[in-house]
Give the backbone structure.
Amino acid sequence: MTDIIVSVSGIKKRFGKMQALDGVEISIPSGVSGIIGPNGAGKTTLLRVLLGLIRADEGRASVLGLDSEMQSLEIRRRIGVLHERPIYPRFLTPLEYLKMISDLYWEHREPIELLKLVDLDKACDRKIKDLSAGMHQRLGIAQSLVGYPEIVFLDEPTSNLDVTGRNAVLQLIMDLYNNTGTSFVISSHILSELERICHNLVFIDGGKVIESGRLVEIFKKYASDRWRVLTSDSEVLYRLITSLSGFENIGITGVNTISFSNKGDINTIRHEIESIAKEHEIDVYDVSRSTSLEEVFKEVSRNESE
Amino acid sequence: MTRYRFNRLSWLLICFGIAGVLIGITIPSFGMGDAGQFDPDELRGRIYFVVGDVNVDITVNEGGPISFYVLDWNNSMELVRTQSLKTIDSIFVLENITHFEGIITIPVSGLYSFISQNMDNESVAFRVDMSRVLPQRHIFYPSVLVTTIGMILFQAVRTPRSPLKEL
Amino acid sequence: MKANKNLIEGIVKLGRIELALSYRIPLIESMAAIVAYTSCISVFMVIFQTIGLNLVLSDTLYNGPENVGAYQQIISERATMSYALAQTSCWTFFTILVPLFFAFTLARAFEDGTLRTLMSYPISRTMLLTVKTLVFIIVISIPVILIPLLLIATYLPSEAIVNYLGLFIISTLLSVAQLSVTSILLSVLSKDAATTAVVGVLLWVGLSYLSSLPTIPIHFLMLCSPIKMLSNYAVGLYPEMINWELLFLLLGSLAFVAALFIIGIRVFRRVEI
């Protein structure tokens, strides 16, 4: 679990006037890792640099100890990739496509076995154009696993999927990691998904890495004194809490929710909030630690901008 | 892969079939024929490239009957070599005519010579006009057949409609 | 030996993928059918136009066997002309088809992300471009070379021999290669289907127009249209040309194609996908 599979140092990449990557430094250990960031943060550009599809203006990147620019072919023999919105030959069946791709690898999984692995064996003789979005994405994962990859890079693997489709894909990634031991590097902007499956996280924004490390440690660092309150009137409660001492970084996170930082214990905090709310006839339904990745990302972003 | 290959084959047949049909109906046409005056017992002839059947119109303007022969390439060369029609097999013969209008069936497309011979004791003025019959059946009908087979094959190997698409 | 075998296997495997990905149904079939139509009509037209021969009959000075030999020679000349015209007719059609083909396979692949998917597999860029070019040259050249030959063998007598057949085959391969590598270079530089299509078609139509001018130098003609130059040579338009000159021109044209191809590969290896 501690081997470094991806290492990036001082990568810079500019497209015209836009600085897509600005001195990115990361080390990703084996396991399931997530690259998180809003749209346009530089996640896909970083992935393209790692695959050798584009050259960085400055810096070095390596995958499995191989230089991504000079040894791109060797890297691609040992990894699998699912790009965002991939295009496969529409008139072929998944089985035909996987058979064709298998020919490109020295050693490869049997296509039918792969289709079973991603639960697509029943649709193996349908044309790709007739597959649903979820099936298409599962085919994408299947094709990334053809050559017994040591790492699979997935770029927005759940985009264009409904809730059921997303859950199925996430479950599939977890199962594959547990059953095959393949490491995954997943780029996504949907934070709630990554927090379910990732061991490691890299936060990217504006082409810079703003935080990286093990998920539990990041939570410990940013979410341990972060609290969330579910209330009947977040606006009024927000104003009331700002007058209390020990409450910092207060923010309205929804019509019925606010969040804040406080180093106190849960009983004291709950008592203080419930008392002040009762005085002003506001209902408080829940006071709990805020442990969503979204909150953590906001916190990280806030710290970065400060 | 088999269905995919049959699908490709069906498209190949359809495309080539349609190309053949087009060739059969748009094949370029140039004037063919012979005209003039020739002496008693004189033989005259021209070689043409013939694709399919030929529409022939023979008219003798002055003098008495002529004979008309159609020879294939080998027999044409034999005629050039021997200068005599005695040992030659013709694919079409009209003897002692002064007028003929009709279609000559050509068995296989290729080079043919159209020979006229004066059968009179005096010189004869004649005119032979020939034109091709379109569509050219040697190309047209086989192409229609190929297109049809392609379409049948295409229907036969067509993927069953996905239930997902119908939703 | 084993390395060569692996290389050939790799090219064949990638060629199959290239066929499945780029030559989508019914693209290859339509292309072959259009080539067939163009070749057939050209061959028929030349034979119809040129074979209306008077038979030498009732001639007091005749020499039968000699005349037969003369006819056979004429038929071979006509067969050569038919073959030459069928190829040059196809060439005019290719000047439009080839840039469009690469625009909608290679340049379009940059736009829609197909190339990104393909380059995620263990394929080297040099190999990909080489296979793409080879497959295209084979797919296009085979019908162009074979269909007129098949027609001539079917319709003309067995004595009809297409002269300079080797030269015709070389010129066809060279011309298709030249069109392909130029279109590949345009696709890779522009990474845009519309630009490749428009610039490619304009470039080749312009060159075709230039090459049809009577005052065009033969060296320029060889560079922009080997097929036309060799057709002209085969039908006797350059009677004073000697063999080594022809060889020199052929090698020059080959070097030009190879140089363009190497530039194409170098650009493709650096291009961002």
In short: The mean pLDDT of chain A is 87. The longest strand of chain A covers residues 4-15.
